[in-house]
Input
Amino acid sequence: MDYQEEFIDLYQQHIHREGADKLLEYLLSKHSDFFTAPASTRFHGSHEGGLLQHSLNVYHCLTDYLSRPRTKQLYHMDYSEESIAIVALLHDICKINCYKPGFRNVKDDNGVWKKVPTYEFEDPMPYGHGEKSVYIITGFMKLTREESFAIRYHMGFSGTEDIRNISASFEKFPLSFALATADMEATYFLEEC
Output
């Protein structure tokens, strides 16, 4: 099974709320490059299909994190398969149609400049990061408050957010912390930076 088939299988297996089918239709349409887009310009997942691979990695990291007895018994993190799939698989849909192929100059081992392929970030809808993902998703289906906060603050303290808001989100909505943890694990341990 390739990454696209895995994504579609997980999505259809776990996400059933009203509008979910229309969102998947959009992701698969010619209006979206979700399945071919990179996850970043030069860092983690900066290759064709990187966004898709990253989304799946975050899903697997989040399900692993939340499967620990400690998270359920001590932290009371008990979420539906649907909520887990939504926040993990869709947290970065804000990146759809934002990366354009380009080139940059780098020195090789001999100090000679050469052009290498890269991606350039060009956001046609500059609405932020996590908040843009929430905005796009809610155009198709409703999110719970906890899902919305988890997606909104999934960058954790590595983003440019007001740290008081991140702390408040982590405290009030533990799924927010769990998703940020899974996102960091996928980014720094599973994907090339």
In short: The longest helix spans residues 50-66. Strands lie at 99-107, 113-121. The mean pLDDT is 95. The first strand starts at residue 99 and ends at 107.
